[in-house]
Amino acid sequence: MLTIALSKGRLAEQAIELLERAGYDCTAAKEKSRKLILEDEKTGLRFIMAKPADVPTYVEYGAADLGVVGKDTLLEEGRQLYEVIDLGFGKCRMCVAGPKELKDGKLDKIPNKRVGTKYPNITRAYFEGVKKESVEIIKLNGSVELAPLIGLSEVIVDIVESGRTLYENGLDVIETIADISARVVVNRVSMKMKSDEITPMIEKLKTQVEIMNSNKEE
Amino acid sequence: MSSKFYTPDGFNDTLPGVCAFKKDAESKLRRLFFLHGYQEIETPGFEYADIYTKPDFVKEEDLYKLTDSKGRLLCARYDGTIPAARYAATLAKDKFPLRLSYIENMYRFNQTGGGRQSEFTQAGAELMGIAGSDSDAEVIAMAIRSALEVGVTDLQVSIGQTGLFEGAVNQAGLDEETAGIIRNAIVAKDPVTIERVAGEKGLSDNDRDMFLMFAQPSGDADTVEEIRDFFTDPKATEAIKNLEEIMEALSDYGYDKYVSIDPGLLGSVDYYTGVVFKGYTYEVGFPIIGGGRYNKTVGAFGRDMECVGFSLGLSLAITALIRQGLELTDPVAEAVVGYEKGNKDARVSAITLAEQMRLGGTTVILDTSSKSEEELNAFADDNDIGTVFWFDGGEK
Fold first, then answer.
1. Nearest-Cα residue of chain A relative to residue B264
2. Is pTM, for the whole model, over 0.90?
3. Which residues in chain A have Cβ-Cβ distances shorter than 8 Å to B319?
4. Domains observed in chain B
């Protein structure tokens, strides 16, 4: 029995679609219900529907063998996991964003800046580790774009997909921290102990991702 | 609110049942170490934090810290190897090779979950002052025996060698920064980054495939033949020879079925200098065995020494066994002896009988609560005690 943790929402749907194309019967997972654990004895698959930020925890602790989760969550949680496939969907960028005027290096001129974000760990790692400066991090839980507009912070760190929310609010991407997409993660012990089941699954999923990517290119 | 009713996060009581099983396991391990000539040591519960942080064996924030009366920084025992290394370098004189063992509680800050606790028991052994594949194999065999002795039979041990990656870096001519990026990608089994870096740095097809091989999710190979052809660097060739010899020796121990080769097992860069291994079982998210060769470590205490060792996470292994379905039994006693209240002769007979039975190895409770014969029988029933003796004067 393999336990797979999915990030509730669009990412879960895309992951299920991919698993089905790879030849795994996911009828159980597609059941429209409020059940949090969806199990199918026949196929030997058990799905758990978790909040995205919790998926790395389930997998690191071995409560789930595998998980599908965004790279943003992985970077923020910093868990000890195997990150075996880049699924290529759920694409976006982790960015520093703020008023347009701060582009072209002007951001660096502000000392002791305040940064609003849902991702305090990524923010700290970027400013302290990469840019070698200390910043005041203000942890927010949503509508992060508000912070620079209302003077709570100079800039924000957030994921940017199309950038529309930013532009409509007079903000822009100032620096890109990392490219984000959905990843398959595996528990380090499960990879050893359940290799007979997990290795073929990874191979089949990889094949499907390659097919998907080559279709896109055409 | 008063917190006197709770234990701190990461710290647990070990209650009857689990405790009996654990102490029995400790006795078996102690016996195993003794029979292999590994002398047991106890090291202090607190050490100067410097022994772990200078050089950087352990991150300062992972230690439980306090200060001594002069304001110097102390820490709770984090592992068994570093104190053993301190002992070997400073106190052991010239009795080498040295075989040491320990069974002690370790303390790690902020490392709970997946079966782990902040306080946990580790049993380990160190073989110090000797190099060579046979010594490596002995310690790996000890690690496997330890797990089996405790009752872990679903066991898989993966073996790597730090020289493989070092050699690969030389072979590809990578600078330190690039090597670090690839190293992290291998640890995360992330092929995407490796492909990207290989492209950027213009690595040869062989070298790219070599690094991808390190990052293969199911890294395990049964023999070195599957990886040999990637490597030309002498450091890596030497590592492969070491792995080959270890696998051969472990086969002589009869342990083939537990071991495989995992090139992607890199080990901490500041610590390991040769073979590295980890042991896994079902139902816990972390390895129960860790170990390897650490030839530089004792040098940090002023004396260079070739060492290899392992530790078994006993608490983690027991958690795994319980989740795998281990039935714990810890009956109160096998027999209970009671006597009529206020009857001196009866009490003498009861005490004498209880002592005799204990000499024969039976666990006996002497009832001190003046129960009647009926009450004593009921008490025995409630507590699964099979045998009841009652004295009321002369006859039982």
1. A82
2. no
3. none
4. 18-155+281-323 (3.30.930.10), 335-391 (no CATH)
